[in-house]
Amino acid sequence: MSDATIPTAEAAGGEPIGPERTALADEAAGLDAADPLRAKRAAFTLDDTVYLDGNSLGALPRAVPPRLADVVAREWGELRIRSWEESGWWTAPERIGDRVARLIGAGPGQVVVGDSTSVNVFKAVVAAVRIAQQRGAHRDQILVDEATFPTDGYIAESAARMTGCTVLPVAAGDVPAAVGARTAVVLVNHVDYRTGRLHDLPGTTAAVHAAGALVVWDLCHSAGALPVGLDAHGVDLAVGCTYKYLNGGPGAPAYLYVARAHQPRFDSPLPGWNSHADPFGMASAYTPAGGAVRGRVGTPDILSMLALEAALEVWDDVPIEDVRAKSLALTDFFLRCVERYVPAGRVRSITPAAHAERGSQVALRCAAAGEAGEPGGAGVTAEAGGAGEVMTELVRRGVVGDFRRPDVLRFGFTPLYTGFAEVERAARVLADVLREG
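Structure (tokenized):
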């Protein structure tokens, strides 16, 4: 079904009949009843809206508000500065980093939480170039996934100017053929934010290493949705956000993974006092700390960081393999419902059908979409035209996805709280909107 018009019952003429909808609704009820993760939904603040935008902003875990209330009233309000030690504020970036590490297949002491994804991409790429150039000054090229999220490309260009490199955009699937003796670093998105395509992390990493270069993976659209296996696959560095599938909240701090083998040579371009070996010594000369602490820069953003820590509690008893299995089942079921319900020729999937190539979202190209519109989902106005109008109407009817210019409807599936009945309803409402339009 990838990049091809989805066939529907409409091709035979007429609307999908009642029994067909009933059969899919019954199937959804059975899948929900057998779902081993179904109890996790109660851990989130949700309503009757079908929320399929967790790939942009995850839902609120119920553990977060009381935790933040305690942080504000007691840890800040009563203990004040004592909380840096007594409440564990100072060690939060590494402590919470270890919680994230479990979800991305990394051992302890290799992930630090803090700053934004953009800042961490900058730290990772520059540091990786410096490590690569220690192996040979001829390594003056940064390969970048040509379909990358724009910020990654902007940061790579800036890092190249600083390090005497040039940037070479290549398709993520072509990296093994493009990497060579001049390559210092390859920066790749694990899952394409627009199409939901899952790229080959093990194979790409092995090819980059065979050429003597380093790889930096952007995990924003994969962490919390599928197994990553950073240690198992020998990844050098990785970055990611925590406000999507990890449900850390708007503006939640990002994270940086530096493989243990690279930590002694990790030369951050942002050597802040928090990453100093003796931060309170206030020395004029910089001496980097050991381990993941080298990835820190300035004072941690404690309120959002501790909100993230509370949000991550929901993962304590969740195997990431169960999450992946449900993610694939949800996206399979959604594509099947769309095939059955949506009028012929109105949408086509640009998300790969093959499980090995699919993340946890489905992107549908909407026929006759206009070029206008804003990049958000619920914020798209009726003037957007085409796909933008469709998403606006879906949101009005209680199905929240988002829209990417010029014509893509994105639906993100968060296995911890998304149910199969919701998926069936989303496809049904999409069909109704398209039929009426």
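Residues 1-14, 369-384 have pLDDT under 50 and may be disordered. The longest helix spans residues 320-341.
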